[in-house]
Task: structure prediction
Amino acid sequence: MKLKLNRLAALAGALALAFALCACGGNQDAAKTYSVDNAQTLLDSGAFDESMAQVNTDAILTIYGIDAATVEDGVCYMATNTSVSADELTILVLTDEAAAQSAMEACQARVESQIAVCESYAPAAVVRLEGAVIRQAGNTVLLAVGDPDQLPAAVDALG
Result:
């Protein structure tokens, strides 16, 4: 009986320690955000079409259906020949996490729409769209469509 209680106490202590460590890690993740400066790092990673060009952020917000009043900063790059490549990189800094959640949903809808369009005229682009990386970190959102073999690691390397 004493052995059972010792094991139970050890298990309870281990669980308490695990929960404490998870709580610490969660706070660090919540503090992480993306910045418009991350765009160049990602473009330099080799995960995107070589012919990416910066696009007016206001135009992108209209295309995505995001309220411009909720966006504090942003940057977007797209492949210059969209009939051949669906590569795209957008980083948005929004007013708060609720706005970021809405923007993330808009980015997901954008990718789904692009998949539907590309299936008929650019089927090679569909693989890249299906491997899109869409992430929210705090009040920021990142949408990246590029090489699905390189892109997740490039985004993870942002730290």
In short: Helices lie at 2-31, 38-43, 57-64, 97-121, 123-130, 151-156.
